[in-house]
Structures are given as structure tokens and as C-alpha cells.
Design goal:
Elements: H1 3-9, H2 12-20, E1 26-28, H3 29-35, H4 41-53, E2 57-65, E3 68-75, H5 84-89, H6 92-115, H7 137-155
Antiparallel strand pairs: 1-3, 2-3
Length: about 180
């Protein structure tokens, strides 16, 4: 992902659009509006256009609907991932802005879930917790590889009958007091 693509993602609605199209889904702008009921139709259309112009979304197909052309969009996976080379050159403020946009998108997604008819956090296995883990550099690298393998395996599964999409967010950063005097 280029630096300009990262700048595109520094908005909660754009992150939510990317999330809605994750896992190989293709959706029309109208379907995206249904997925983001708290965002106006004009807002969703504007952000879909920006993400498409930036190469993060691509048109998967078109069909005429009531005198207009309806487009189906899909995520351009390589363009939607921040690679290490870009992350390394981002400033602390850019990291802060992207994290804030990500958290705002996550809060909006969770609020949308809670407002759905039949939402039941216990039955739906909703989980949110923070845990501090003490790791050496080698253990950290191993844990990250294990997560990447698990996410690659589960993230490549396609929508199918009997499957429901789940939002999984991981946040990892050094906690305060990380130095020990062993």
C-alpha cells in the first residue's frame, strides 16, 4: 500500500467500507449503505468513489437498474494492506490518526451490531478484553507469525450458507513499564 492509500484510509467510514468488502465479498453502493445505516447515502457514495479512485476498491461488475448503472465493488486486497515499508515511514501523528480512525470505525460497527434485532452478545460469543503478555523479541515474532497463519487460513474462507461474518480486531503495542530488571 502506498502512502497516499494510507491517507485514504484515515477515515472511519472508509475503513468500514473496506471491512464490509473483506473476505471476498462484492457489494453495490446501495448494499454498502445498508451495511452502514448511520452514514448518509451521499457520504457512502463519496467515500466509495474516493476508494475506487485510489485503487483500494475495484468495479467487479455493472448492471442497469431503473435507468442508471449499478456497480458491484470488491476490495483490491493488495492495495488495502499497509505493508512494513509504509508503516516504517509513517509519523507518530499519522499512526495516531490511523489508529483513531480504526477505533472510531470499530465503535460504529459494534454500535450497529448492538442495534440489530436479536443482537445477543452472550449468544453471539462477543468478546472484548485486554491482556498483557510478557514476550522476548523471539516470542513476539513467533506469536505474530502464528496470528498471521491463523488469519490467513480463516481470512481466505468465502461467504457461504451457515457462515456469518465476524469482526476480529487485534491491537498490539508495548505496554507501559515494559523494561524489567532481571
Amino acid at each position: 500500500m502506498s502512502k497516499s492509500a494510507v491517507d485514504l484510509l484515515m477515515h472511519p467510514v472508509r475503513i468500514r467500507i473496506v471491512n464490509a468488502l473483506a473476505g471476498g465479498r462484492t457489494l453495490t453502493t446501495a448494499q454498502l449503505c445498508d451495511q452502514l445505516p448511520d452514514a448518509s447515502q451521499a457520504t457512502v457514495y463519496r467515500h466509495v468513489a474516493a476508494l475506487t479512485e485510489g485503487g483500494i476498491l475495484e468495479v467487479d461488475g455493472e448492471q442497469p437498474v431503473r435507468g442508471t448503472i449499478e456497480r458491484r465493488y470488491r476490495l483490491h486486497r493488495q492495495q488495502a494492506a499497509i505493508d512494513a515499508s509504509v508503516g516504517q515511514v509513517m509519523s507518530a501523528d499519522e499512526h495516531r490518526r490511523l489508529f483513531t480512525a480504526s477505533m472510531a470505525a470499530l465503535i460504529a460497527e459494534f454500535d450497529g451490531y448492538l442495534q440489530r434485532d436479536g443482537a445477543n452478545p452472550y449468544v453471539d460469543a462477543v468478546s472484548y478484553r485486554q491482556t498483557v503478555v510478557w514476550l522476548s523479541d523471539a516470542e513476539l515474532a513467533s506469536m505474530i507469525r502464528e496470528f498471521q497463519q491463523l488469519l490467513a487460513m480463516r481470512g481466505s474462507e468465502e461467504p457461504a450458507p451457515g457462515r456469518s461474518p465476524y469482526m476480529l480486531s487485534t491491537i498490539l503495542f508495548p505496554a507501559a513499564g515494559g523494561e524489567t530488571s532481571a
